Amino acid sequence: MDRRYIEFTTPESAQLVTDNPPDPARGEVLIAVRHAGINRADLLQRLGLYPPPDDASPIPGLEVAGEVITVGEDCTHLKAGDRVCALTHGGGYATHAIAREDHCLVLPDAITTEQGAALPEALLTVWYNVFERGRLATGETVLIHGGSSGIGSIGVQMAKTMGATVLSTAGSGERANTVSELGASFVANHREDNLAEQFTEAGYAGKIDVILDIAGGDLMQVNLDLAASDGRIVCIGVMRGMLSEINLATLFMKRLTLTGSTLRRLETAERARCFSAIREHIWPHIIAGNIRPIVDTAYPLTAVLEAHEHMRLGTHFGKLVLDCQVE
Ligand SMILES: NC(=O)c1ccc[n+]([C@@H]2O[C@H](COP(=O)([O-])OP(=O)(O)OC[C@H]3O[C@@H](n4cnc5c(N)ncnc54)[C@H](OP(=O)(O)O)[C@@H]3O)[C@@H](O)[C@H]2O)c1
Q: How far apart are the first and last CA of the chain?
């Protein structure tokens, strides 16, 4: 049995490499990957701007879906043949990948591996940042920026399902309409200058308890201005810039909390704990079809550069995935 995996030989070239699949260590499983999710961090890794942690696989790819082939020592829940989606510590752009058993979710029959590959990173990111760091509670109002994104399209549905009033942003009226269909009560256009005014006119200024910011830069002061007293703002991305000039008085006048995180640096045990919470609180809604993974396009593994270019251009809605079955 061979493993085929993607190696970026330069930032603009990729090759398929063949080797033997790794053996799963204690608590790990080996997965025959059918589909792998693409994340913005993968583009940065390819360009050399986001090196993987020292203990991670140098092979790109942070999430997969497929079939368990072998289980390592001390695995208690999964067995060969189980269909799963999983967060990987790198290594997802491949025909075979290792994941920790406690970083896997068993796929219901109704969810394809194409859809499953769109879930782990988004579920974990939203759960940890919106529900744990942001402490979003039932009945509160949350603004999830980028409802058209891989993260946002799941986040809007998760927050709605958990009983929040959901607001969002998208880059056009048409994309905003699609985000509304996912459960958002109001969606502003982030490409227009008057972002804060759009929320103010809709009656939400000063009433937003939790904000998930995926863009940073000049968006941060807008977030501070829109937040309710005791609001929590969680920043996870910097597409609008790593530096923000903010009025600190807004922070103390409203007793705001500003925090952030990156999933890649979250400890293994913390990820496992989040997966447990997701199994309990979110997965039943996936099984019931209340939360739907949205896949824009599945590219063949060998067309990874084309898929990355699609993400760079930002014309997708939801997730882009790779079909990892190679002849
Ligand atoms: N910290 C973490 O742990 C973590 C984990 C996962 C992702 N992230 C970050 O979260 C962000 C979304 O990731 P993704 O994989 O879901 O990306 P994605 O699918 O490519 O989506 C990008 C989103 O950003 C919106 N957007 C683009 N330019 C923008 C701008 N100038 N201002 C505001 N919004 C803008 C897009 O809206 P339109 O296309 O509608 O214009 C789209 O909704 C990325 O920054 C990523 O690095 C962080």
A: 13
Partners of 322 in the β-ladder: 36, 299
pLDDT, one tens digit per residue, over 46-87 is 999 989 999 999 999 999 999 999 999 999 999 999 999 999
Domain count, the chain: 2
**Residue 214 Cβ contacting ligand 1 at under 6 Å:** yes
Expressed in angstroms and rounded, the spacing between residue 272 Cα and the centre of ligand 1 is: 24
Do both 130 and 260 map to the same domain? yes
Domain hosting residue 35, numbered range? 3-119+293-323
Judge if 153 and 254 occupy the same domain.
Answer: yes
Q: Alpha-carbon distance 155 to 162, whole Å?
A: 11
The strand pair at 13-19 and 3-10 is best described as antiparallel
Ligand 1, atom nearest to 41 Cα: 47
Q: Is the CB of 314 under 6 A from ligand 1?
A: yes
Give the CA distances from residue 58 to residues 3, 92, 93, 105, 271, in Å, rounded to whole numbers and listed in that order: 15, 10, 11, 24, 20
Do 146 and 252 lie in one domain? The reply is yes
pLDDT tens digit sequence for 233-287: 999 999 999 999 999 999 999 999 999 999 999 999 999 999 999 999 999 999 9
Residues 223 and 129 in one domain: yes
Q: Is there an atom of ligand 1 within 6 Å of 278 CB?
A: no
Q: What is the CATH number of the domain that holds 52?
A: 3.90.180.10
Average of per-residue pLDDT across 149-156: 98
* Cα 166 to averaged position of ligand 1 atoms, centre (Å): 17
Nearest-CA residue for atom 9 of ligand 1: 237
CA 139 to ligand 1 centroid distance, Å: 26
